[in-house]
Structures are given as structure tokens and as C-alpha cells.
């Protein structure tokens, strides 16, 4: 990871970024209201889920990428946030039906309803009250997660690297178990789902007949996640953020510079969990329900992989990777899950040839890498050919078997392809999409290389 | 009394199975300082391979075949996913391990179609036996003895043979041992092969008890075995075994009470307590900068 840059961020750059985000938000509103939501349900699922995961990935990156604390407790904090939001906002009238196993809820008020009543029940006042209530509930969700992070951080933050990872993973599992405990059923509804709380769709504006006038559900997900990510970026660019980065680079040196290690680590952990909690609440709003068994360690791994794909230490990387990840898994790679046959002989031949080329290409790439690393003898290079030979062998076998069925395509294949892609990124492109650069850095460099490459070299030497 | 005996019996048997997985964790961690997150999934794969192999072959062929396949899998995982990252930061290797675990789970889901597979009945091990009035399977009785035998064998291997010496040297000091002419890559591969083989044997015992295999059935036993390894002091094989037995027994005692939900959580609570109070575990080497 590169050294901490103390360069002053240009005002022009942040203004441009702000305009860019605004344009995206407007685009989302326009898209949502022009495209048919029933036909394009997958697109909006990917967008909403992408927005939620962007926030969670950014919060994880704050901890893992910027402070260098390798924590795997994200799912636990999301669970806390999701449940808090649900418990605080389920309408009073619905509580008996949601908690029917436990004969009603122990908490009998709903923040959103209370705020709605405060602002005059229905109409514009009601809407303002509802939004305010939802915001308060979201902040509560974050605060609860942050409080538990503080509690957990007391013992755990003394640990280092992988011990910290496994301890936080353990805490997430403990939290999950507590929320499934029957004795807390009147609050958490035991192992059953909480539902009927305000969801993203509740933000759609309807007229008196209940028809939707303006769809805002995707916009709301984007807006909340955008504001939170903006706050994270502000934090990272503040003096606290620089302290975090200093801790990441070298703890001893940071301490020698007068940075209070325990305080800053705790702070990073708590703030990261706060945003993870809000992310969890958003996820609950997106899924229309919240259930403890969905917040498994697999979820944390997924978020971690998003962070890695985007680049550890890059918020824009995490954001973009989250959208790419969700677009791939929910939308672009869906076809891999559906068994099909080749319609024409051309498609069949194309497949056979592409597979053969891929085999040759992979072998060439791996052999080249070995040669670069200094391998000359055959005994050092044969293992690089294995994968290519296997693929080629399969290709010949497939050609010989002469079926028109597209091989492999079946339910679950999407995730296999996906994990292979992730492994390739982890092994060969360890920096991810952005490394530890931000989008603004990339633009700046693009602009600069055109103007004066030598000047940059000089500037680099002066630094 | 009957109840207590049954809980104790299943605790010891589960503990033994965790012990076989934990040895793999502790050996790999001892040398590479890497939590091999994929180890639990290797264990699950061992179960799945036997399901498919036993469907077409008699058991006396399919079991050795499965064990060999798993040893090869362990070897390949190390070569493909960990070896290229030898000089990378520890976090990258761990992420790679998580990636492998993700890949194995997804592949298993794809291959099985996400349906639970039922484990074949093994002769003798699956038969019932009655002890103190509690009916149990022979595997429960066999497990602790088998584990003890394997651990003794392993100790002999580590303490008396040349490759064992190399493994101990690699665990002590990675770089110096390279300077001494030890082929570090083959030592590491050997460690993975041993760990995977033990996990394969562990899977034979474990899935005879819990006869259903789903792609996720490896992750929880894997994590618990890791906790056992930490509890016993990571890097120490006797420690891992004792830790595994303690965790297995405690877990089954909790399952016998009304706090069943917390049987998994308890393990992690134990982990955090031990990490905070005695980071080196029960029998760990005394290295202070590790945690």
C-alpha cells in the first residue's frame, strides 16, 4: 500500500464528484419511473442490492482497508441494525400478527407511526413524519450496532490480524444465536422473521386511490447509502482518517507520532459498525423481512470479497465492485443457471473453438508468467500446462460426445463461475479494480498524463 | 445417569472428530501462520466424494480412493491458492483461503444440486451398540481410540522422522530453515496432505453420525475445530486434540440443556475468553508478539 498522501484535495474535484452523484440519483429516479418495474425487476433488484452492499462494503473497507484491522463481524452488526430497525418500526396494529407465536410484542410503539401522528396522520405531514421516523429508526439501528461494537471491542481489539478476524467472526455467530433465542422471542421473534415494517417500497409516493405516482424505492436506497458513504469519505479525509491510515501502515510508528492506538482503533471499529448497522437496516428494508439465519458468515465473506475486488483501501472501488458484483450475480450471469441447448451448428462450433482457444491461451499465459519468474527447465514449467490440458481434453471429449446441450449450465453454475473469477482476482490481480486509489485519483492521472508526463516525474522526485 | 452417559459419549465422539480436523488447522497454522478457512470445506468434500464413490464402487475401494483424492485436493489447494502468495501480506493469503472455501462450497452446491446427500452406511461403524443402557453407534466407541492411535502415529512422524524434523524447523523459523537447505515447498505440501488425510478420516467418523451432507456442513465443524486448535494452543498437536475433546463435550452438554441455540455460540465465547485471558492457549508456544 502506498504512503499516506497529504495532498490537498482540489475543490474542483469534489464539486465534480458531487455533481456526478447528483446525476446518478436523478438518473435512478428517471429510470425507475420510465422502465416497467415488473419486466425489469432484476435490474432494480441488482441496483438496490448494489446500493446496500456498497454501503456495507465501504464500512468494511474503513476498518479492513484504512485502519488495517481485519474484522469479519460485519454480518453480526448488520443483523443488529436490521433487527433494531424492524423492532422499532413495525406498526402497532401489525405486531400481534408478526409476533403471533409469542403472543404479541414486548415493545408496543413504532417510531414511524409516532412521527406520522406527530405530523398530522396522513397526507404531506404524514409523509414527512414517516420519512423522519424512518431516518430516526435508521440512526437507532446504527447506534445499536455501534454500541455492541464498543462492547465487543473492549476485549477483542487487543488482538491482532487473524485472531481478531476469528474473534469477530465468533461474535457475529454469538449475536446470531442470541437473536434466535426463544427467551427473547417477545422482542426478536425468536428464529422467525420480522416483517411488515416499512420497506423501500413504502417510500413510493401514492395518490389517494393507492396508485403509485412516483416510484422512489431505488432512489431511497441510493440516497441513504450515498449519504453514508459520503460521511465515510469525509471521515477518511479528516485528521482521524489520516490517523487510521498511519495505524494501517505502521502501528509502532503511528504510536510514536502520538496517535492513541486503542482510541483510534476503537473509533474505527465503532464507526464501521455504525454504518454496517445502517446497511443492515437497509438490507432489511430491501428484503421486506429480517431473519437471523440470513446473516451468516457467508454474508461477511461476500462483503469481504467485494472489498477485495474493488481494492482494499479504496472507497470508490468498493462502491463500484458492489454494483458489479450484484449486477453479475443477480443479472448478467443469470443465464448460467438455466440449462439450454445450442440452436445452430454455428454456436456449437463457436463454443468448441472458443474453449480450445481458452485452453491454449491459459497455458500460454501461465507459462509466460513462469518464464518471467525465471523458470527455464521443463521440470519447472510442466505444472503450468495442467489446467490447459484438462480444458483441452474436456473440449475434445465434448466434441466427441456430439450433444447439442450446452455443457455445465445448470442451477448453481453461476456461483461457481463467480467464485472462479474471484479466485483469479485474488491470485493474479491482487490490487483489485482500484488498488488503493480513488476514482478522483484515476481521473486526475488521466488528465495529467496528457499534459505533462515529465512534470509528474519531477514532482514525484521532489516529494 | 443414562442421560449423562449418552451426552458424554456423543461429546467424546464429536470431540474426536473435531480433533482430526483441528490437527490440520494447527499444523498449517504452525508453519504458514494461516487460518486455512478451506479446511472445513475439504472435510465436507471428503464426505461428498464418498457418497458418490460408494454409489458405484464397493466400500473397500471407495474409502481409500476418497482418502487419496482428498490428500490430492489438499495438495492442489496449497499449490494453486497459497503458494503464489507466499510473499504476500498475511491478509491476502487469508482472503485467498476464504475464496477457496467459497469456491468449494459453490461447486458442491452446483454438483449436488443443493440437495442434502445421505451418507452411505459403513459396516461395523454404523451398527448400534448398547452401553449402560444407552444405544449408540460403534463409531462413538471407536472414535477416541482411533484418534489416539493417529495422534501417536503423528507424534512419531513429527518427532522421529526426517520430514518431521523439517516440519518442526519450518514451524520454528520459516526463513532460516530455507537457508538450511530444507525444501520448504515440499514440507508445506506434505503438511497439507497430512492435514487433509486426517480430515478425510474425520469425515468418515463424523458423517456416520450425522448422515446428511449439505455444502455448508463443513463450515461449522471447521470453525469449531479451529477454535479447538486455538484453545489448545495453536501449533501444538496434543493441545488441539485436548481442546477438541473439551469443546465436543461442552457442546453436547449444552445441547442437553434448554440452551441448545447457544451450542455454537458457546464455542466462540470460549474462543474469545481464551484469546483474552491466555492468548497462547493451553499448551501454546510462548511467543508474545503473535496475538
Give, in order, the helices and strands of chain A: HHHHHHHHEEEHHHHEHHHHHHH
**Spans of chain A with pLDDT under 50 lasting ≥5 residues?**
1-7, 452-463
- CATH domain class name of chain B: Mainly Alpha
**Mean pLDDT over the residues of chain B:** 88
Unreliable runs of chain B, pLDDT <50, ≥5 residues?
A: none
Q: Determine the oligomeric state from the structure.
A: heterodimer
Strands ordered across the widest β-sheet of chain A: 1-4
Number of domains of chain B: 1
Using CB atoms under 8 Å apart, which protein chain pair has the greatest interface?
A-B, 46 and 48 residues
Query: Can you tell me the overall shape of chain A?
Result: globular
Strand pairing plus helix content of chain A: what structural class? Answer: mainly alpha
Pattern of helices and strands of chain B: HHHHEEEHHHHEHHH
Fraction of residues of chain B in helices?
A: over 70%
The biggest sheet of chain B, with number of strands, parallel, antiparallel or mixed sense and barrel status, is: 2 strands, antiparallel
The average pLDDT value of chain A, as a whole number, equals: 84
Radius of gyration of chain A: 25 Å
Fill in the CATH topology of chain B: ABC transporter involved in vitamin B12 uptake, BtuC
Tell me about this structure.
The complex is a heterodimer of chains A (463) and B (291). By secondary structure, chain A is mostly helical. Chain A has two domains: 294 residues, no CATH class; 69 residues. Helix content of chain A is 70%, strand content 2%. Chain A contains 19 helices and four strands. In chain A, the strands form two sheets. In chain A, strands 1-4 form a two-stranded antiparallel sheet. Chain A is globular. Chain B is mainly alpha-helical. Chain B has one domain: ABC transporter involved in vitamin B12 uptake, BtuC. Helix content of chain B is 73%, strand content 4%. Chain B has eleven helices and four strands. In chain B, the strands form two sheets. Chain B has a two-stranded antiparallel ribbon. In chain B, strands 2-3 form a two-stranded antiparallel ribbon. The longest helix of chain B is centred in the first third of the chain and has 31 residues. The N and C termini of chain B lie far apart (42 Å). At the A-B interface, helix 7, helix 13 and helix 17 of A face helix 3, helix 4, helix 9 and helix 11 of B.
Amino acid at each position: 500500500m502506498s504512503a499516506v498522501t497529504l495532498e490537498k484535495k482540489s475543490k474542483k474535484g469534489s464539486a465534480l464528484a458531487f455533481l456526478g452523484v447528483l446525476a446518478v440519483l436523478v438518473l435512478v429516479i428517471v429510470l425507475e419511473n420510465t422502465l416497467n418495474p415488473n419486466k425489469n425487476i432484476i435490474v432494480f433488484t441488482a441496483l438496490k442490492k448494489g446500493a446496500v452492499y456498497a454501503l456495507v462494503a465501504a464500512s468494511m473497507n474503513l476498518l479492513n482497508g484504512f485502519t488495517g484491522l481485519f474484522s469479519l463481524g460485519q454480518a453480526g452488526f448488520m443483523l443488529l441494525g436490521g433487527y433494531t430497525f424492524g423492532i422499532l418500526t413495525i406498526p402497532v396494529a401489525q405486531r400481534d400478527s408478526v409476533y403471533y407465536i409469542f403472543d404479541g410484542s414486548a415493545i408496543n410503539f413504532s417510531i414511524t407511526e409516532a412521527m406520522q401522528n406527530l405530523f398530522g396522520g396522513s397526507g404531506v405531514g404524514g409523509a414527512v413524519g414517516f420519512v423522519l421516523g424512518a431516518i430516526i429508526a435508521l440512526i437507532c439501528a446504527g447506534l445499536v450496532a455501534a454500541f455492541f461494537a464498543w462492547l465487543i471491542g473492549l476485549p477483542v481489539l487487543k488482538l491482532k490480524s487473524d485472531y481478531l478476524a476469528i474473534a469477530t467472526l465468533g461474535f457475529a455467530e454469538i449475536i446470531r444465536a442470541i437473536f434466535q433465542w426463544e427467551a427473547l422471542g417477545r422482542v426478536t421473534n425468536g428464529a422467525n422473521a420480522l416483517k411488515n415494517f416499512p420497506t423501500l417500497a413504502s417510500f413510493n409516493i401514492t395518490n389517494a386511490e393507492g396508485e403509485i405516482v412516483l416510484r422512489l424505492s431505488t432512489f431511497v436506497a441510493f440516497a441513504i447509502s450515498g449519504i453514508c458513504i459520503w460521511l465515510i469519505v469525509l471521515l477518511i479525509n479528516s485528521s482521524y482518517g489520516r490517523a487510521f491510515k498511519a495505524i494501517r501502515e505502521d502501528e509502532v510508528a503511528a504510536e510514536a507520532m502520538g496517535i492513541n492506538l486503542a482510541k483510534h482503533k476503537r473509533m474505527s471499529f465503532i464507526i464501521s459498525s455504525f454504518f454496517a448497522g445502517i446497511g443492515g437496516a437497509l438490507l432489511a428494508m430491501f428484503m421486506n423481512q429480517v431473519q437471523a439465519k440470513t446473516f451468516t458468515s457467508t454474508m461477511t465473506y461476500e462483503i469481504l470479497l467485494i472489498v477485495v475486488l474493488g481494492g482494499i483501501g479504496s472507497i470508490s472501488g468498493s462502491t463500484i465492485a458492489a454494483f458489479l458484483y450484484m449486477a453479475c450475480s443477480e443479472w448478467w450471469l443469470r443465464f448460467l443457471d438455466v440449462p439450454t441447448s445450442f440452436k445452430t451448428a454455428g454456436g456449437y462450433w463457436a463454443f468448441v473453438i472458443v474453449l480450445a482457444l481458452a485452453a491454449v491461451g491459459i497455458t500460454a499465459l501461465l507459462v509466460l508468467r513462469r518464464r518471467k519468474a525465471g523458470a527455464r527447465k521443463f521440470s519447472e514449467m510442466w505444472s503450468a500446462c495442467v489446467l490447459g490440458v484438462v480444458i483441452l481434453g474436456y473440449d475434445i471429449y465434448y466434441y466427441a460426445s456430439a450433444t447439442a446441450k450446452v455443457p455445465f449450465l445448470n442451477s448453481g453454475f453461476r456461483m461457481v463461475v463467480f467464485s472462479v473469477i474471484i479466485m483469479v482476482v485474488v491470485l493474479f490481480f491482487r490490487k483489485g479494480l482500484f488498488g488503493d486509489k480513488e476514482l478522483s485519483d484515476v481521473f486526475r492521472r488521466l488528465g495529467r498524463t496528457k499534459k505533462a508526463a515529465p512534470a509528474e516525474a519531477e514532482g514525484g522526485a521532489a516529494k | 445417569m443414562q442421560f449423562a452417559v449418552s451426552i458424554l459419549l456423543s461429546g467424546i465422539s464429536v470431540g474426536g472428530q473435531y480433533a482430526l480436523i483441528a490437527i490440520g488447522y494447527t499444523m498449517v497454522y504452525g508453519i504458514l501462520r494461516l487460518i486455512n478457512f478451506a479446511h472445513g470445506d475439504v472435510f465436507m468434500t471428503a464426505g461428498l466424494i464418498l457418497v458418490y464413490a460408494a454409489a458405484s464402487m464397493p466400500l473397500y475401494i471407495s474409502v481409500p480412493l476418497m482418502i487419496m483424492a482428498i490428500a490430492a485436493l489438499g495438495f492442489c489447494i496449497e499449490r494453486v491458492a497459497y503458494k503464489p502468495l507466499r510473499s504476500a501480506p498475511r491478509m491476502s493469503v487469508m482472503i485467498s483461503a476464504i475464496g477457496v472455501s467459497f469456491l468449494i462450497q459453490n461447486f458442491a452446491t452446483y454438483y449436488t444440486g443443493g440437495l442434502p446427500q445421505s451418507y452411505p452406511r459403513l459396516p461395523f461403524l454404523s451398527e448400534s451398540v448398547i452401553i449402560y443402557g444407552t444405544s449408540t453407534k460403534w463409531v462413538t466407541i471407536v472414535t477416541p481410540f482411533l484418534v489416539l492411535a493417529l495422534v501417536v502415529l503423528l507424534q512419531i512422524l513429527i518427532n522421529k522422522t526426517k520430514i518431521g524434523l523439517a516440519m518442526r524447523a519450518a514451524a520454528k523459523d520459516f526463513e532460516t530453515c530455507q537457508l538450511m537447505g530444507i525444501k520448504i515447498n515440499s514440507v508445506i505440501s506434505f503438511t497439507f496432505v497430512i492435514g487433509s488425510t486426517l480430515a478425510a478420516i474425520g469425515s468418515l467418523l463424523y458423517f456416520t453420525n450425522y448422515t446428511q451432507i449439505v455444502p455448508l456442513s463443513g463450515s461449522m465443524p471447521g470453525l469449531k475445530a479451529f477454535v479447538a486448535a486455538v484453545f489448545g494452543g495453536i501449533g501444538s498437536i496434543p493441545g488441539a486434540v485436548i481442546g477438541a475433546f473439551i469443546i465436543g463435550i461442552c457442546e453436547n452438554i449444552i445441547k442437553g440443556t434448554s440452551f441448545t441455540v447457544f451450542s455454537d455460540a458457546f464455542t466462540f465465547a470460549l474462543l474469545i475468553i481464551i484469546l483474552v485471558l491466555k492468548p497462547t492457549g493451553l499448551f501454546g508456544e510462548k511467543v508474545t508478539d503473535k496475538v
